């Protein structure tokens, strides 16, 4: 009887570790995606000032975003395309423009969601002016 109780207890402990480990891995992927996007936004802001060019970071589709600079009025040369992890998507397409001084003329919000549940996980807002990046956990 004691062996049965010990086996059930060990099984319960191992099951809970596996469950919370998988949950933690999912959160890690979305946190990495959010931090990478925030880093890219800050990078685009700094490079726009360093090169004195108008830069843009824009959502191409639900899984990718692009970085580029203006070549002529409203035409951009894409320098980089990045893909989100497989279980994460953008909720809506958006873009943010940085002027030659690194300022933002109109605010933009990047919304990331979990594909499987359709649940919005994070909202990342780039404010007008200095281009401050605010990250809000929506989950």
Describe the overall structure:
Mean pLDDT is 83; it is low at 21-25. This protein has one helix and eight strands; from the N terminus they run αββββββββ. The chain has 139 residues and is of the alpha+beta class. A hairpin with a 2-residue loop joins strand 2 and strand 3 (75-83). Helix content is 36%, strand content 35%. The chain has one helix at residues 2-51, and strands spanning 55-59, 64-72, 75-83, 88-90, 95-98, 108-114, 120-126, 133-137.
Report the helical percentage: 25-40%
Q: Strand fraction band? A: 35-45%
The quaternary state of the protein chains shown equals: single chain
| Low-pLDDT ranges | 21-25
SSE-based structural type:
alpha+beta
For the sheet with most strands, the description reads: 4 strands, antiparallel
By DSSP (H or I, 4+ residues per run), the number of helices equals: 1
* Separation of the first and last Cα atoms: 44 Å
Per the principal axes of the C-alpha atoms, what is the gross shape?
Answer: elongated
Give the total of beta strands.
8
Residue-averaged pLDDT:
83
- Largest sheet, spatial ordering of strands: 3-2-1-5
Q: What is the radius of gyration computed over CA atoms, rounded to a whole number of angstroms?
A: 21 Å
* H/E topology pattern: HEEEEEEEE
Give the tags:
single chain, 1 helix, four-stranded antiparallel β-sheet, 139 residues, elongated
